Fold this protein.
Amino acid sequence: MAMNRSQFWKDLEDGINAHFGMAYSDRPDEWKQIFSVENSQRAFEEDVLEVGLGVAQVKPEGSAVSEDAGGQGWTARYTHITTALAFSITEEAVEDNRYQQLAPKYAKALARSMKMTKEIYGASVLNNGFSSSFVGGDGVALLSASHPLWVGGTASNLLGTPADLSETSLEDIMVQIRKATDDRGLPIALNATKLVLPPDLMFTATRLLRSSARPGTADNDINAIKAMGMLNSDPAIVTRLTDTDAWFVLTDAPDGLKHFVRKPLSKGMETQFDTGNARYKARERYSFGWTDWRAVYGSAGA
């Protein structure tokens, strides 16, 4: 239904001092702190696990050398969604408004709605990260203690004992990241790069990362995380994280959290001949997801 004069009845007469409620500032795109961005030309994209060789074997004198073989494992698929929104305004609502240019103002509101939609879908990857109802290519949740390894067995990117963000829990997960292996069980050089937090934990994180001495204690010990140059970048504070005590640590694992752009944001406008209504539309196609679970470790809190 087109917006008409009855929805802007105060704008048809004199006496208004100001309009408010649509002029708030927005934060920069928060999802960009978490996801790498790639373009897509297909309905979906797939990333396939490729596994290398194991360790060498001792070769007894005169015997044949041992052989090994790698292969391919599970596949992560990114299926793009389409998001779209539109609005219409009658000719009379535009003509008789004494204060505002309604079409440009609501065109900006339309762009903002599309921006907010993308923030919600981006944050949903972590919001659903502990749920077995949202699984990745390996068949388990993003944050899980039972990621299957190609060589057999499982690995975890969950803090061993669920805990709130603290000096101890953060150090524990940094050790866990340091001990990470590939799908052959071989150690890899995985490094923590950034904390990802809801706004509720931003002050706790600042004390943990920026204090020169150990935070929250009377000891004169150094802050080991700061002294070792770990997590130097500012935490990513994501407003739309819904669990107030869940926290995450991003790593430098390649092919981790990804955002595919199938069709960038496009906007259009048309005037209907029979009604004179102006109709504005915005549309884009994209996907958010993850390939390698080693790109993020975390805890759901205590």
In short: The mean pLDDT is 92. Residues 30-51+73-293 form a domain with the phage-related protein like fold fold (CATH 3.90.1690). The chain has five helices and twelve strands. The radius of gyration is 26 Å.
